[in-house]
From TrEMBL:
This is FAD-linked oxidoreductase. It comes from the Bacteria. One of its GO terms (cellular component) is membrane. InterPro entries: ALO_C, FAD-bd_PCMH, FAD-bd_PCMH-like_sf, FAD-bd_PCMH_sub1, FAD-bd_PCMH_sub2, FAD_lactone_oxidase-like, Oxid_FAD_bind_N, Vanillyl_alc_oxidase_C-sub2. GO terms for molecular function: D-arabinono-1,4-lactone oxidase activity; FAD binding. It comes from Caulobacter vibrioides OR37.
Amino acid sequence: MISRRGALICGGVGAVVAAGGAGYAIATGDKPEPPAPPSVDAHGRLLWRNWSGIQKAYPAARLAPKDDAELASALKAAQAPIRPVGAGHSFTALAPTDGTLVSLDALSGVVGWEGDEAIVRAGTRLGALGPMLAEKGRALPNLPDINKQSLGGALGTGTHGTGAAIRAIHGDVTALRLVAPSGRVIDADAARNPEIFQAARVSLGTLGVITQVRIKTSANRRLRRRVWLEPFEEALAQAEARWAQHRNFEFYAVPFTGLAANISHDETDDPVQARGPDQDAEVLRALRALRNLLGFATPLRKAAGHALLSTAKPETAVDEGWKLLSTERPVRFNEMEFHLPVENQLKALAEVVRVIEKERPDVFFPIETRRIAPDDAWLSPFQGGPRGSVAVHAYYRDDFSFLYELIEPIFRRYDGRPHWGKLHSLNGSQLAAIYPRWKDFLAVRQDLDPEGRMLNPYLRGLLGLT
């Protein structure tokens, strides 16, 4: 499958990657591979590391329960901090612990249905859930940009896709089961334990371990996926109309090219038109080659980048939504993403692009821009109104301190809320000012975990409990 960023591929990209000059630039312009930490520490504990490599831990114990009862019994005696972990795709230090790491990989699959709502175990990976639901003719209404996450991890961090009328994944959860660190098993929905339900739908794994959810599904429709390139200024001018027009719409500003890639998905009854081969890695190698070769001269780099990509022809694919909405990500990166009031989103994006092109010639990843419908979960970034997201990436070998120094101040000035799984520096007092139900959440958390056994040092600082 062609990924979203792979949609930028055109015939000339392969030529750039293959060219001797670009190949030499890639070989000489990149920083070396970051050193890997020891696979075992001095106490014989095995390494855990997140996908991008910036978070690590050596847990004293690891749990992989096969059912709720086993988990409940184990949590009572587990060494703190207790941290649930999914696929390790968060960039913040949510999972690291020198206590107990809990994997829900054994708690996976669709275990029942209530009408069109599926009952799904929280360890289920999103990429596996699509075909499971499709067997019943159903689908999740939306999917995020990447589908390697576990369902529990996606809920814990407020993971989302794009679509002005479509909520993040947690917005379609109608019931959940939570195992508190005391071993108490709690079923919650809007009627039973409603405050726990509102707190737990986005809770960063700080209340206990969610093991199961009931979630709304939609008919498994075919979608028509269109990808096209145009000048960045035109993409900015048309974005609002396109969010109103399309079921799903997003676009990527490609720095140092003057271009943007637009991607839309709309329901269709047309026959399947398969996607081409996945070339995501090739386009990123080409953009990296341009950076390494021409990064010293921004006007020349922009001219070459524009020439390289502007001849790309529009692409179309038709297939079931779960096959089109998510993407493969073979190239690692670190990421900062904030969710902004819709009236501020495009202004913030334009400023981010200007700052990067002025201050950071090392950046080459496209900048992702999406729209998300509101929901009412207490710590949902989309609580209280729709939000528009802007995500900035740094190659995993490159310095990403500029995200804090240059990009985060822009997002904060435009009233952004951080993605819980992406890099940011906000703490408890700052977050309390932008989340109206912050104190309510902390009260539920204190009731379920009065000893703070679910909190690692990062989470204590994040929640303002240090």
